[in-house]
TrEMBL record:
It is found in: Nucleus. ATP binds at residue 190. Its main location: nucleus. The gene is Dgri\GH13656. Pfam families: FHA (PF00498), Pkinase (PF00069). This is non-specific serine/threonine protein kinase. It is an enzyme of class 2 (transferase). Keywords: ATP-binding, Kinase, Nucleotide-binding, Nucleus, Serine/threonine-protein kinase, Transferase. SUPFAM superfamilies: Protein kinase-like (PK-like), SMAD/FHA domain. InterPro entries: FHA_dom (IPR000253), Kinase-like_dom_sf (IPR011009), Prot_kinase_dom (IPR000719), Protein_kinase_ATP_BS (IPR017441), Ser/Thr_kinase_AS (IPR008271), SMAD_FHA_dom_sf (IPR008984). Belongs to the protein kinase superfamily.
Amino acid sequence: MARDTQGTQATQSQASNIWTQVESQPMENIVWGRLYGKNIKIKSLDLNNDEFSAGRGEANDLILTLNDLPEKILSRISKVHFIIKRANCDLTNPVYIQDLSRNGTFVNGEKIGTNKTRILQNDDIIALSHPTYKAFVFKDLSPNEAIGLPAEITATYYINRKLGSGAYGLVRLVYERRTCEQFAMKIVKKNMLEVSAHPNNNLNDPERVLNEAKIMKNLSHPCVVRMHDIVDKPDSVYMVLEFMRGGDLLNRIITKKLLNEDTSKLYFYQMCHAVKYLHDRGITHRDLKPDNVLLESNDEDTLLKVSDFGLSKFVHKDSVMRTLCGTPLYVAPEVLITGGRASYTQKVDIWSLGVVLYTCLSGTLPFSDEYGSPAGEQIKKGQFRFRHPAWQSISQRAKLLIKQMLIVDPEKRPSIDAVLKCNWLRDTTILQKANRLMKLEDMEIGEDENNFLEPPTKRRRQ
């Protein structure tokens, strides 16, 4: 039940004690928000339950009467006019307001709409029955995760918990305030991006950033993460991306230790479709790795999507060379040989896909300092073996595909079209499953397709 807290001094002392009590007191007693009366005869109301309702009905937490509102306004108030809720009273969850009225609940002068929901933010003004009748000011007592972010971002999105971080910057879960839809917002500091003297390569050129963003926003494929919005600021680029609940492929491999051959094939086929879509549009990813492959759900049979394809155009060349161990273990040898300072073909993505497939099937990397010579030297020479015991049960076709993709000479590597036509992927059951996940029509597996990745048949001696 909401509490009417009279007096400014009591209100301030309560607010100052909230944070010291959060860890020790039961969750249901946490005061997570407060409504301050505006044109209503209530000074303030503490919100400390999952859900708070207001209206004329006697079952509400706040029962509105003639003691609170003029008769003219009260006559337009519904039995349950609106509900404010915060799941589990968890301070990291957003606060929702749902309009259940006939005559309207308004936030900052804008009507929510009957049975519709919106996310509240600190200092939002709630009006009842008419946009001019401002009844409450909402105060969010949770820690402010939006400190330092542009007003353009915080006005549109509720900033939630940190999802992860990487070489390019921080990723946070955000909610669009109007629709309550979840997104992942990648915050990329421009000092991590390439800034050169040449105007065509300058990330501080808003026109270039927005042109690239427009290209990325226009991409549409079931296996490519959708870009919802982008905001360019002097020090950072804010990319609002489709949110994938299943996490990334790296965590899936770590959790499972390795993936069986059928699951690896299901995931690899979808990755190849994403890469083909990008390559057909002249886009080379350049940073394919399990961290950049996101899963839609925690189910084993799930849709996956390739992410971070847009950042490859912006990332500083030196940062391509950075990883946890100091060697970019998914990067093609031609990138290492030239120190990341040359132009590359789309074949760099084929190499990376080969390393990802190797990792899926065995839970290990083909190149590692633990194998003797430095991993970078192994990559440059294409030196790897199928060491892990798991390889004993892996088909020869899978191993052959990996060998063909991990050829040092990029000219001798297959194209993405050839990979998609390889015999290992001629598995009707897996392909039909993948096509259902991608919502594509079932594809015929023809016998006359490209056999680029099959070994030549041995000639019989006469």
